[in-house]
Design a protein that fits this description.
With about 260 residues, the chain is mainly beta. The protein is built from 4 helices and 16 strands. It has a single domain, classed as SoxY domain (Immunoglobulin-like), CATH 2.60.40. It has a 10-stranded mixed beta sheet, with no helix packed on it. About 40% of the residues are buried. The N terminus is likely disordered.
Length: about 260
């Protein structure tokens, strides 16, 4: 009888609840959902040391510039850029392995939404910052320009870029030609770049990006790489169709030589 009562008590007792995320200063209806999905039980703080630079109004909802500078936090494991109310919320997951915790890119917005950066530090804490951005809508549900023109396949996988010395490190600018289809446009399947790796001349990985379909067509990324022995860098990328692309950032002139895609 006692065992039965104990069993009933265990069944009736609620499971231990995960620590609730902190109250959202932006008042987003999707904050708790995204916080639980992205951060799990990890501690989360809103932190002004995470500088998120973005316009308050998206003049073009297909191309919203976003820059995140988390250098004030010291050692960073990951930076996640996401828009609460997008149908594809997460845009980029950046691991600055041997790079500064800085990234700039362009994303799509499907409506007015908070745009945020979440930065994971070495102590396991997520540091979050961001703001609301007004947008007309439809950034994720309209076909890309290259699809409308019909020339997307002619330039698929082309890589261009440049680098500059900045202090003791390098600022790297990359652009990759890709339609970045979201799968939300009728008769156009999901098709996007999903991974990018930056390595030095010896093959050591400097930084990796996991890329989602809410990144703008023809993705552009600006990164800041820690001091390296040579300015020659290797770029490799893969899309959701299994195509691979590679290029070398030459030390003279900052030109990227694009290689043909490999299947």
């Amino acid at each position: 009888m006692i065992r039965s009562l104990l069993a009933l008590a265990l069944i009736a007792a609620p499971a231990a609840a995960a620590a609730a995320p902190p109250a959202d200063p932006l008042g987003s209806p999707m904050w708790e959902y995204h916080a639980q999905r992205l951060f799990g039980d990890a501690p989360v703080v809103f932190d002004s040391r995470v500088a998120v630079m973005l316009p308050m109004l998206a003049e073009n909802q297909h191309v919203l510039p976003v820059a995140v500078d988390a250098r004030a936090l010291g050692k960073v494991e990951k930076i996640v850029i996401f828009a609460d109310l997008n149908p594809i919320p997460v845009a980029v997951e950046y691991a600055p392995l041997a790079a500064a915790p800085f990234i700039a890119t362009r994303i799509k917005l499907d409506q007015r939404t908070p745009v945020r950066a979440a930065v994971l530090t070495a102590d396991g804490v997520w540091h979050v910052a961001g703001d609301w951005v007004d947008a007309a809508g439809g950034g994720c549900s309209a076909p890309p320009v290259s699809r409308v023109r019909g020339d997307w396949a002619d330039h698929l996988g082309e890589i261009r870029g440049a680098l500059w010395r900045e202090g003791e490190g390098l600022r790297v600018r990359l652009t990759l030609r890709h339609p970045m289809d979201t799968g939300l446009v009728e008769n156009i399947a999901l098709y996007h770049l999903e991974q990018l790796t930056l390595a030095d001349a010896q093959g050591a990985t400097l930084a990796t990006l996991r890329i989602h379909a809410s990144v703008s067509e023809d993705p552009a990324f600006t990164l800041m790489v820690n001091p390296v022995e040579t300015a020659r860098l290797a770029v490799s990328a893969r899309d959701s169709g299994g195509l691979e692309f590679a290029a070398t950032l030459a030390p003279s002139g900052g030109a990227l030589l694009a290689a043909a895609p490999r299947s």
